[in-house]
Design a protein that fits this description.
This protein is α+β, with helices and mostly antiparallel strands. It has helices at residues 12-29, 90-104, 119-127; strands at 3-6, 50-56, 59-70, 73-81, 109-115, 131-133, 145-151. The chain has one domain: Aminopeptidase (3-Layer(aba) Sandwich), CATH 3.40.630.30. Residues 10-153 form the N-acetyltransferase domain.
């Protein structure tokens, strides 16, 4: 049975999944360069950041992170599920875990970026209440980037 777990920013398995994600995105978009904001899991070592994963039998199958922007906002980064584990709800489990942790850390808002060809990701985010916002930061002016936000309500 897969379990959601906190990962250390130095977890090499998470770094490997994030590298695989970037390779897959370059192939999907026909790019030779990494189009996403430069990112390393070690950026999550600071206060208010979180790295979650789904493990099964010691293997990391999915991951995602919250990167603190400021006291009220965090960005969801590097959501990824290995191809052979897709369709099992692991990405949703990571996203819900990140949303829960965001609330617990006192964030009022989560933001994220995905690509316009990533239908499964778009569907996941919209199903959880994320709404489109103007492209921000690194993604401003990138035509096939889609940015989203979710206003968090405090946990009951």
């Amino acid at each position: 049975m897969p379990s959601l777990t906190d990962l250390a920013p130095t977890d090499t398995r998470a770094a490997a999944l994030m590298t695989a994600q970037q390779r897959e995105l370059r192939a999907l978009y026909g790019d030779t360069d990494e189009r996403t904001e430069p990112f390393s899991p070690t950026m999550l070592a600071g206060e208010g950041s979180v790295l979650l994963g789904v493990e099964e039998g010691g293997q990391l199958l999915a991951c995602g992170a919250l990167k603190r922007w400021d006291a009220g906002t965090a960005e969801i980064k590097r959501m990824y599920t290995v191809p052979e584990a897709r369709g099992r709800g692991l990405g949703k489990a990571v996203l819900l875990g990140l949303m829960e942790r965001g609330r617990a850390l006192g964030y009022a808002r989560l933001v994220l970026e995905t690509g316009n060809l990533q239908d499964a990701a778009i569907g996941l985010y919209e199903a959880q209440g994320f709404t489109r916002i103007p492209n921000f930061g690194h993604y401003a002016g990138i035509e096939n980037s889609l940015c989203y936000a979710l206003e968090l309500r405090p946990a009951p």
